[in-house]
Amino acid sequence: MEPKVIFSEVQVAKQNKVIIYLLYLSISAIIIAVLYLLINNQFDLYSFLLFTLILTILILIANSKFILVITEKEIMFRYFPFILNQRIIRIDEIKTIRAQAYDPISEFGGWGIRKSGKKKLYSMSGNNAIIVEKNNGDIYYFGTRKAEEFNRVANVFV
Which letter does DSSP use for residue 63 in this model? Predict the structure, then answer.
């Protein structure tokens, strides 16, 4: 029998309008730069590779997705395309779990996948996180837009 899902959340980059507008602006700037170089016969292999790399990174960011599922037995998370395989934290490995506000810029230097000492951050945006402290001292911050919903069901872990 599959364990009961207590909490789940899927975040996509497209939910954050600022990121999407910046990505569209960046992609437009790249296309304009390529056209300019083509018109002036300055487009070479190096330029092509550079623009292709930048465009690929922007497309990966635009299509990123963070998936968090908490069941009675484990926490499963994945941050596509940067973490392809689902990662799992078993409930018996957890010392404490709570949702609270945090400052991603001062604590981690921003959003995304970050590490600071024994703390690891997986966040798309915002300043709320489900904070999981493991028995070995590792602390995971999972960015969430559903902190209140998590707090309503968190009594399962007490």
Answer: T
